[in-house]
Write a structure and sequence with these properties.
single chain, 4-stranded mixed beta sheet, 17 helices, about 45% helix, alpha/beta, 4-stranded antiparallel beta sheet
Length: about 425
């Protein structure tokens, strides 16, 4: 293989990299032989010059093979996983994983931390006192066998090359590259080695894919690349012009996910979880998947699996329910009457990030208590003066600043988006 410097120059100048070069490069990233500054240079070159479908597939497989690939006993099938491309208020995985497990689908799920203005499932789960996302692979395997679901973070063993690249994409402003997103998502998912995968590709102001055309392109690339790897897959393109549900912020979103598992919670969060669970069930060949998903959610079976998962991973829901709220709260009321579509998602995500609910640097700590809690669902007629939501902040000045930003991003008198914009079958 050419030297790393030659490889970078080749991609910088618009050349094609071979599968062997990408495999060696990913292996070097995983071993530490390729330093982070060269990995960053590769990301920028790939972002500017693009990656061909062949390069994207090769990088995906190289990331998968940069570490251990899970081997599952055939008796555990069907195994399936879901991935969201990231949105504001997107806590659906916390509902979906135990819901799918309650339907008889094994769900080995490796999730990520917050990225840009979007939240991360790991940060949300870690707001539960004691909850561990750093389990060993052996423990991960045992929990899948015993409970049917386990939600952990990137490990040194699975797709370690992506662990480095994922952390650098935010810092290098290369998040929105469709080939890099595809390789990152699928590299991890293929290392998990499920039988089927479902993708929730967000589209709109609060998503990395701003337009339907971009979102559909990514959805198709994910499904097609998964197919080339021998995996069944489908994708939904879903709206992210407004936040999902009523809560944005780590502990607030976990509380809302529990509400949905208890048969309450916002309608959009519930319906999206049910739609994705049905999609997973259909791929797994379950008869009456949609009806079974609804039955498992309404009966409390999914909630029971969630409790077992949290307990198995060291979490304490009693302590979570007793946690104090953020010290500063600022109410935001309607300045006028009319049809309130809700806050524009990206502005809301950035406001919560500035409160401490997300990261600007890899090493930044996340405050689990800060965020935004709506009192009124998006797409509701309201009267002037009614309470629309409350900002939860670490101090009064930061909460007031966030409240002003969110209020300025309110959208009025425009129709709400459909939740699911398009389905991409495998």
């Amino acid at each position: 293989m050419a030297s790393v410097t030659d490889l970078l120059a080749q991609k910088r100048d618009g050349g094609q990299l071979s599968a062997g070069e990408l495999y060696a490069f990913a292996s070097g990233i995983a071993s530490g032989e390729v330093p982070s500054y060269q990995a960053s240079a590769f990301l920028m070159a790939a972002y500017i010059r693009g990656l061909s479908p062949g390069e994207t597939t090769a990088l995906t497989m190289a990331i998968r093979d940069s570490g251990r690939v899970m081997k599952w006993n055939a008796s555990l099938s069907p195994l399936a996983d879901k991935h969201s491309t990231g949105g504001v208020g997107d806590k659906v995985s916390i509902v979906l994983a135990p819901l799918a497990a309650s339907m008889g689908i094994r769900v080995p799920m490796i999730s990520g931390r917050s990225l840009g203005h979007t939240g991360g499932t790991l940060d949300k789960l870690k707001s539960i006192p004691g909850f561990r996302v750093d389990l060993s692979i052996d423990r991960f395997l045992r929990q899948i066998e015993e409970i049917g679901v386990c939600m952990i973070g990137q490990t040194p063993e699975l797709a370690p090359a992506d662990g480095v690249l994922y952390s650098l994409r935010d810092a290098t402003a290369t998040i929105t590259s469709i080939p890099l997103i595809t390789a990152s998502i699928l590299g991890k998912k293929l290392a998990e080695n499920p039988d089927f995968m479902v993708f929730d590709v967000k589209c709109g102001s609060g998503a990395f894919m701003k337009t339907p055309e971009q979102a559909v392109t990514l959805a198709r690339m994910l499904v097609e690349t998964a197919g080339q790897a021998g995996k069944g897959a489908s994708a939904l393109v879903t709206s992210m012009n407004q936040p999902t549900g009523l809560s944005v912020g780590n502990s607030l979103e976990v509380a809302e996910a529990i509400e949905v598992l208890e048969g309450r919670g916002p309608r959009d969060t519930r319906e999206l979880a049910l739609t994705l669970a049905s999609e997973m069930g259909n791929l797994a060949g379950l008869s009456g998947a949609a009806e079974r998903a609804r039955e498992m959610l309404d009966s409390g079976a999914a909630l029971g699996v969630f409790h077992r998962m949290v307990e198995a991973q060291g979490g304490d829901l009693d302590r979570f329910n007793r946690m104090e709220e953020a010290p500063a709260k600022v109410e935001v009321r309607a300045a006028r009457s009319g049809f309130w579509k809700g806050p524009e998602a990206r502005v809301l995500g950035e406001a919560v990030r500035r409160l401490g609910g997300g990261r600007y640097r890899v090493e930044d700590a996340v405050d689990p208590l800060v965020g935004w809690r709506q009192e009124v669902p998006c797409g509701t007629p309201v009267e002037a003066g009614c309470l629309l939501g409350v900002v939860h902040g670490a101090c009064r000045p930061s909460a007031e600043h966030a409240a002003g930003s969110i209020e300025n991003a309110f959208q009025w008198d425009v129709p709400s988006d459909h939740l699911v914009l398009e389905r991409i079958p495998g």
